[in-house]
Design brief:
Length: about 650
């Protein structure tokens, strides 16, 4: 028997295909390629495994790209903070083994892997630079697999030397074999002891690996439950157009699933990480497998719907959710997820979808005990569907919102602040939005409705905090700001003061915790409140477009133009007003010009007058005659202006 020289291949998870190619090339050349798949652990046991795998290797080949990879939970005592892959090469060098580095070009095809944070990428960049600065033996600018294969075959001289050493050792062992027969009896006992010790060490190592595997599986199961709960449709806020962002702590769990989980867990992780196309491809592969009993098919259809729902494409989620409901027509979850998609869907006959959401919700009420939390959740959904049901009829609008209020109050008959704080706060927020939205026959009635809304919003904020519920906190603060802004009675200056404070509180939440649309709405509300309070410098700062901003948010742009005009920069303001002539504000028939003129009326009603209003009005009329409507869609304006 001829022993093949062992060559250890070191690579990160995105280079598995490249590593397999190198292994096949080496094997075809008569060598024994080995490697270690990295699995994250809670301890440092994997470092011991790597040391044992590297020790018998005659040579180490490392594939290097921009990825850092997994790392031990603590810095290593030999090299400090390094990834497992970096450790493999550094440990081999410490043991006096030759390491040959193959640097892969940016264009080299890699396996799919989640992007790494800038801090981690910087660690890998520094590692690569150190290798180059210290003149390690390396091959660079390998752009594809054919170049990689050629690069491996180019080190044939190094490999030939390894082969020669292995053959020489084999011949020496053969010569020693004859003499060894004579001493067999003498060393039998020693050999048996050695084998027993090795067997014990192998058993201990297997036990450690089993423990690591068990711990990893437990972590994956925990992560799966948390991520699944995060991406499953949950109670909505009235007027909400996108699902809430996934919390950062859940994204960490999603990363673990996408890198270490099985196919279903990887798909789940991708959904949370906004890798929706990749998730859909994996889900379709799972669905295409033969068999798929009802439970499994239902789970995959729900996951497919969750993927598009979290992507903000509720209309694409409707098909999978409808199929899931057809498989399990008495499943409460199937009803709830379909209702959420029907409420957020924007394509086709929106009114018909809202009515279907109400019908499906009423069916769901029959599946759960009256007065249960699931019953209350369904009442919440019914309220949102009624409140968001589009109609041009004022009487119908009043009736719809009144039914929404009744549904929210029914839910609050079940939820309590003590037992169900999150659901209670969510429903209070929706109730506040409904009171804000309820048409009024008089100023006094409007004021009473808004006072009730303010009470509901403040109740929600007694549970929601900036630290524990940042997205919810910001949304409720925004709604509270609008209620104070629109309150027609009381001390006007005090009302504006409270409105400004609420919008500023919403903007105090980190941008990563809320959607860009919410951020723009908060800036619009704040700058309008500042305009009404005659704080033109504040409005100018709040509404100023970000540097290099391409997608202009027209409601904020109008506020910026007003602030520029009222600050005395007339020519600059006129240029902004004329720039958007013919553009639509919100996908309806309301034009930019109409919005500007309405704002002038509102400013004058609040005692903010300027002779420039008439001049701008005339300029807009002239421009309107000569400039055809662009039809350019604008972002949806913030409510309340």
């Amino acid at each position: 028997m001829i022993n093949k020289p062992v060559i250890f291949i070191s690579a990160t998870s995105d280079l598995r295909t490249a590593r397999d190619l190198v292994g096949k090339v080496l094997y075809s050349m008569g060598y024994e390629p080995v490697w270690q798949d990295i699995a994250a652990t809670e301890g440092g046991e994997l470092l011991d495994v790597l040391r044992r795998r590297i020790e018998p290797a005659a040579l180490v080949i490392q594939l290097v790209d921009q990825r850092y990879g997994a790392e031990p939970p603590l810095p290593t005592k030999e090299f400090g903070r390094v990834s497992y892959t970096q450790f493999e090469a550094l440990e081999a060098e410490r043991l006096g083994k030759k390491v040959i580095y193959h640097f892969l070009d940016d264009k080299f095809p890699t396996d799919r892997a989640a992007a790494e944070p800038p801090e981690i990428a910087a660690l890998q960049a520094a590692y690569c630079q150190r290798l180059k600065d210290t003149n390690r033996l390396r091959y660079e600018q390998i752009a594809d697999t054919s170049e990689l294969e050629l690069s491996i075959r180019r080190i044939s001289d190094e490999l030939a030397a390894l082969r020669h050493q292995a053959d020489r050792r084999q011949r020496n062992l053969a010569r020693l074999g004859v003499g060894a027969v004579v001493g067999i009896v003498a060393v039998a006992a020693l050999t048996l002891a050695v084998f027993q010790r090795l067997e014990k060490q192998a058993a201990e190592m297997n036990a450690r690996l089993d423990k690591q595997t068990q711990e990893l599986n437990e972590r994956l199961d925990t992560a799966q439950a948390l991520v699944k709960a995060a991406v499953t449709p949950k109670p909505l806020a009235a007027g909400q157009t996108q699902p809430d962002p996934i919390p950062p702590e859940i994204l960490v769990k999603a990363q673990l699933l996408s890198e270490r989980g099985n196919a279903e867990q990887r798909a789940l992780g991708m959904i949370a990480l906004n890798q929706h196309q990749q998730a859909d491809q994996l889900i379709q592969q799972l669905k295409s497998k033969p068999g798929n009993p009802i439970d499994e098919a239902f789970q995959l259809l729900s996951m497919e719907g969750d993927n598009w729902y979290q992507a903000g494409e509720a209309d694409k989620a409707l098909g999978p959710y409808e199929q899931a409901l057809s498989l399990k027509p008495n499943d409460f979850k199937a009803h709830n997820q379909l209702v959420c998609a029907l409420i957020l869907g924007r394509d086709g006959d929106v009114a018909a979808r809202r009515l279907r959401a109400i019908k499906v919700s009423e069916q769901a009420l029959k599946l759960v005990p009256s007065g249960s939390t699931d019953w209350a959740k369904t009442q919440n959904n019914i309220g949102i569907a009624w409140q968001n049901l589009p109609t041009r009829d004022a009487a119908a609008k009043t009736k719809n919102v009144e039914q929404a209020i009744a549904a929210y109050q029914a839910a609050l008959g079940v939820y309590t602040k003590t037992a169900d704080p999150a659901d209670w706060a969510w429903t209070q927020d929706n109730l506040g939005l409904a009171w804000s939205d309820l048409p009024a026959a008089s100023t006094a009635e409007n004021a009473e409705n808004l006072r009730r809304a303010i009470t509901a919003f403040e109740a929600a904020l007694s549970v929601r905090t900036k630290d524990t519920h940042p997205a919810d906190w910001a949304r409720t603060q925004h709604s509270l700001g609008l209620a104070w802004l629109n309150l027609p009675t009381g001390n006007h200056a005090e009302n504006l003061k409270y409105a400004t404070a609420a919008f500023e509180a919403a903007l105090d939440v980190p941008a990563a915790s809320v959607s860009p649309q919410s951020r723009l709405s908060d800036e619009t509300g704040l700058s309008w409140a500042q305009l009404l309070a005659k704080d033109f410098a504040g409005a100018l700062a709040s509404a100023r477009p970000a540097a290099g901003e391409d997608n202009i948010y027209l409601p904020l742009e109008i506020n910026y133009a007003h602030a520029v005009l009222l600050s005395g920069r007339t020519a600059e303001a006129q240029a902004i007003y004329l720039k958007h002539v013919g553009e639509k504000m919100d996908g309806t028939d309301k034009s930019w010009q109409q919005a500007v003129l309405q704002d002038f009326d509102d400013l004058e009603k609040n005692g903010i007058e300027s002779p420039e209003y008439a001049k701008v009005t005339e300029l807009l009329k002239q421009a309107d005659k000569t400039k055809p409507p662009s039809g350019k869609p604008a972002m949806t304006p913030a409510p309340g202006k």
